[in-house]
Amino acid sequence: MCRAFDVSESGFHAQRTRPVCKRKQENTRLEIEILAAHQRTRETYSAERLHHDLADHGVQTTPYRVRTLRKKLGLRCKQKLKFKATTDSKHHLPVAPNILNREFAVNAPDKVWVSDITYIPTDEGWLYLAGVKDLFNGELVGYAMNERMTRSLVIQALFRATAKKHPDKGLIAHSDSKNTCTRFQ
């Protein structure tokens, strides 16, 4: 085997019995610290910020060493999702009159429903949720989710609410005057 690797027998046996060098021991300890810090910071810190976090926790090292060991471990920080504007307040669509006039006290169920859309950041991107709520008891009577905020998302939430509750005539369905909610009036 020594001939195959072109090393002397004495050098081969010396390497096998030689203790692990101090630098390798430190790197092994640092790898554990870096993994812990990476998880503690929710995998969002760059090598420089991770270096500062390690220093705050009493671990002395250099940013270059942190960067090298992160690369060796295959650690990457998660990219934060960019904010995405979801409202077009300057649309030219007709807006229904506000007959609710901020009177949120209702004396019976299925008389006034309110709806809105919100977005939820996930690992795969944005998820949009349209909900319909009964103002009488705060019950969520219908909802719909999708990766895109479309007019059909709001309509689907309203259809689900009406299929579940079968409201009488005269129901007030109130939404804000955002672009998506005004398109289906």
TrEMBL record:
Entry's Gene Ontology molecular function annotations: nucleic acid binding
Ranges of residues in domain HTH-like: 29-82
Gene Ontology biological-process entries: DNA integration
Domain of life: Bacteria
Residue ranges annotated for the Integrase catalytic domain, each copy included: 107-181
UniProt cross-references to SUPFAM superfamilies, sorted A to Z: Ribonuclease H-like
Gene3D superfamilies: Ribonuclease H-like superfamily/Ribonuclease H
InterPro entries linked to this entry: HTH-like_dom, Integrase_cat-core, RNaseH-like_sf, RNaseH_sf, Transpos_IS3, Transposase_IS3/IS150/IS904
Protein name (record): HTH-like domain-containing protein
Record organism: Nitrosomonas ureae
